[in-house]
Amino acid sequence: MHLTIESIGAGKVKPSRIVLWLDEFEALERLPRGLKRASRRGLEIRNCENLGPHKKYYPYVSEAVHETSTVLVTADDDVLYPRGWMSDLSDAHSQWPNDVLCFRAHRIRLANDGIAPYLEWGRESSTVASHTVFATGVSGVLYPSEMVRQLRAAGRAFDPVARSTDDIWLHRVALRSGIKARQVVAPARLFLSIPSTNRVQLASDNVAGGKNDAIISELYEPSDVRTIQNEIRS
Q: What domain of life does the native source organism fall in (predicted)?
């Protein structure tokens, strides 16, 4: 985990804060040397409830009540981010301040007047903003201030339906808030990752196991599908 944090800190553009959320309350008493070193250099290590993948954004948005202009960037804890990662997101935000921005996305497809199975979605190949662009968190995502406010307003409605996946919930909140997503480069980028048992397990359950499709069918209402349909037709 400390390697991910070091890679972010070594970027051309530094974030104003780096917060690591841990759901193991005893972990603060036995931090490895790499994280202790990073904390001495400014890393904030905070405890939170075990919210699965939602803990990388929800604890922050729920407490950032007075930060009305906050832009939030999330990063997975097992990826090595290149030096231009944050600067590319920052430059893209300057150009498109209202969009959710990412380096890797899927393109939502429809079938039989509904959303097609997740495994049939295509990889995004453009930099055009759309409600059909489905940002994936692995390569990092920037959320504009309006999205931060919408996530705070939505609260914990992801629980229990979407507890195991944040990407689907985040897209649905954006969709209903009129916020589009945009991949900042084409083709998509998948950065070097550190082997992670948790990632393999989540992919197995959510993607290959069909859990994503069950969650999508429960979260997305006919009005959501119509919004996506209208986007495709326009």
A: Bacteria
